[in-house]
Q: What sequence folds into this?
């Protein structure tokens, strides 16, 4: 969107061309003006005993308009209606919101926001990272915004605890790391979460899977097969987990366990649990293993673990193998077999002492399906493999790949979906007959 000729922009540049909103808001003159008005508004709100938060939105808006009028008259700046609205919104976001991040969070085309210090902000659109003009006044300004993110959910960030995982009110995932660990200033990463979970039809339409794969996965979820989703960072594991959870019946009692709550289940009987980090004294921590143990006492029909990354793997498999069929989890791994190796390693971290064959029998009897998702070189996310865990032969877990994505070349994001086996081992447990696409390939 192009911004019209602006009084402040004219002061900042003699270029008569109308600057874009990003370029305009990044100018030193604009930033200085915004924060002068911001300081005046805060003082006025304090004098009027008005709280500087969204609960006093109308009074804050009125005060901002008055401050802009007074400043424009005093400094001789002519502002048209659109310009005044932009400036007022920016000041309002500084007072009640997340400052320069607000326009980026509201942009539906942006998937990720990455802040590398006060002056460098990147966004990801359609799988591509690009530098934007948004910026913070300084590191202190950025730290103020960070504290607004972490404080409402009971997280803390300071020199003694220099990194934290958090979430926004809409479920977006946040990671923060600050000096002295981050050498170039505070670093902030936001993985935006869609207000409405992506649907299976959208997965097919975007080429993330084909109709046969969607039909099989929905059938598997409805039939209560235990499912493990694996993939690398940013591959779309949680998004896929969220979509597949939509095929669970509304009559079931579901318990979700996450480090930062971002799953949005649509069922009515959902209990959401979230881990808690230790206090500055190192006490009061509640980890995922504690929550899984407690969830087993809460009469769940299914347990959905946002990510298994530690000793909670023991309790997760216990839930999957002792009457909580249809449970689901995600794990970081590059292939389906790597996912099993990682679970095996995590069982050791959990203190499960047994010989290798016993561990692998425990794993193979608990997990029925592994779904691998991958982010391709062009930024697209695809389901690249659906594999059954059949059992144990000797000391080796036997797998049966049902579907796969075959790329045109190792570096290509294009390719076709292929049916690898038409005789699933767990076919007898499926509620519906399996259907296959009449022709292979992406939509």
A:
């Amino acid at each position: 969107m192009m911004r019209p000729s602006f009084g402040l922009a004219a002061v900042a540049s003699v270029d008569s061309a109308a600057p874009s909103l990003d370029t305009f808001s990044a100018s030193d003159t604009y930033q200085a003006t915004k924060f002068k008005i911001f300081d005046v508004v805060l003082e006025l709100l304090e004098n009027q005993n008005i709280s500087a938060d969204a609960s006093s939105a109308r009074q804050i808006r009125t005060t901002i308009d008055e401050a802009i009028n007074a400043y424009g008259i005093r400094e001789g700046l002519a502002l048209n209606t659109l310009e005044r609205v932009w400036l007022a919104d920016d000041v309002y976001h500084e007072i009640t919101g997340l400052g320069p991040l607000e326009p980026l969070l509201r942009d539906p085309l942006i998937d990720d926001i990455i802040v590398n210090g006060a002056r460098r902000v990147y966004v990801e659109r359609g799988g591509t990272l690009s530098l934007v003009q948004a910026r913070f006044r300084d590191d202190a300004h950025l730290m103020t915004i960070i504290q607004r993110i972490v404080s409402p959910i009971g997280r803390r960030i300071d020199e003694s605890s220099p990194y934290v995982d958090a979430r926004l009110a809409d479920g977006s995932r946040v990671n923060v790391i600050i000096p002295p660990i981050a050498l170039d200033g505070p670093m902030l990463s936001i993985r935006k979460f869609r207000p409405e979970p992506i649907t299976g039809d959208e997965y097919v339409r975007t080429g993330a899977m084909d109709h046969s794969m969607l039909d099989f996965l929905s059938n598997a979820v409805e039939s209560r097969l235990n499912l493990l989703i694996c993939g690398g960072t940013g591959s779309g594991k949680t998004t896929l987990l969220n979509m597949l959870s939509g095929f669970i019946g509304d009559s079931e009692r579901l318990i979700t366990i996450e480090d930062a709550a971002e799953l949005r289940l649509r069922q009515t009987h959902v209990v959401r649990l979230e881990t808690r980090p230790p206090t500055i004294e190192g006490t009061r921590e509640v980890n995922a293993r504690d929550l899984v143990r407690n969830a087993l006492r809460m009469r769940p029909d299914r347990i959905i673990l946002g990510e298994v990354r530690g000793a909670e793997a023991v309790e997760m498999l216990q839930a999957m193998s002792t009457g909580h069929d249809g449970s689901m989890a995600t794990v970081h791994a590059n292939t389906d077999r790597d996912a099993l190796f990682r679970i095996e390693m995590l069982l050791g971290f959990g203190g499960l002492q047994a010989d290798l064959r016993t561990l692998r029998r425990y794993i193979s009897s608990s997990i029925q399906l592994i779904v691998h998702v991958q982010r391709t070189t062009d930024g697209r996310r695809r389901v690249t493999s659906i594999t059954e865990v059949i059992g144990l032969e000797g000391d080796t877990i036997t797998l049966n790949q049902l579907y796969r994505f075959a790329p045109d070349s190792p570096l290509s994001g294009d390719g076709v979906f292929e049916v690898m086996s038409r005789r699933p081992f767990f076919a007898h447990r499926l509620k519906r007959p399996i259907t296959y696409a009449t022709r292979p390939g992406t939509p």
Notes: The longest strand covers residues 381-393.
